[in-house]
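re: that chain from earlier
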Amino acid sequence: MWVTALGPYVGIAALAYWTYTLPSGWKLLTVFALSYLAVGFGVTIGYHRMLAHKSFETYPWVEAIFYVLGCMAMQGPPIRWTATHRRHHERSDQDGDPHSPHLAGNGVKGVILGLWHAHTGWLLSPDKERTDRSVKDLIRNPMIRFVDKYYWLWLVLSVVVPFGLGLAIGHTLSFGLICVFWAVIVRISLMHHATWSVNSICHFFGYQSFRSDDHSRNNPVVAIISLGEGWHNNHHAFPTSARHGLRWWEPDVSWFVIWTLKTVGLAWDVRLPSASAMQQKAAGGSTGGAGSPAV
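^ sequence. v structure.
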């Protein structure tokens, strides 16, 4: 499991070093970093914190940008992605959770099978039930339906944009294709494993700061590569919070983007857990306010 989860990062680090030694290698790495951040925020902010949990409000055009960027991550259309995630919260680590690592039995075999299922295997299994009941709010929204309907178009753009950028920078067809390799293929490999690691590793390895009714964990390594999503115990304790890294030592770059949007007037009604709610959760007291489960 660790080889499956961490192997791509080692390979990409080696590939990045090799690329850096090439002429204009730093340009390729810059294109990769920018694409990883832009598309990654589409998932962490657009799909997750806005669509799935309504963590803050913003203008429709800002929403649309994040949703399109989320589509470009190639993790599925936004409505389906949100339905799966909401079902995960409803039944976290219980029967019906689409990607819990704790439902495959006991012993070493159960752990290995569970981690595999949570990391990748669940994607190969058909849905056991209808999921549209949990996303009726999204289905009623014309803009979200439009983005969802033309998911294929955003996938095409996710390839065309880096190719065009490569042509503009390197002025050659080969440089455009190399940019596609880094901004699409390499980026997908790293980002998908980062997302999947939240499902698998963050329900098995790490620490718990707050009481929750599941096995969610905070994992600093996953938090860094997933742009803040790895503070998973914090998230399950306060699912509607726009900030996942709730302590000063828990960096959450996605929250920094949301904070910036709020500062410049592009976000409002930003939901955060109160100090008293955090204290109650940490002490094992009653749940209140921001700690209510997502739907």
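The longest strand covers residues 57-58.
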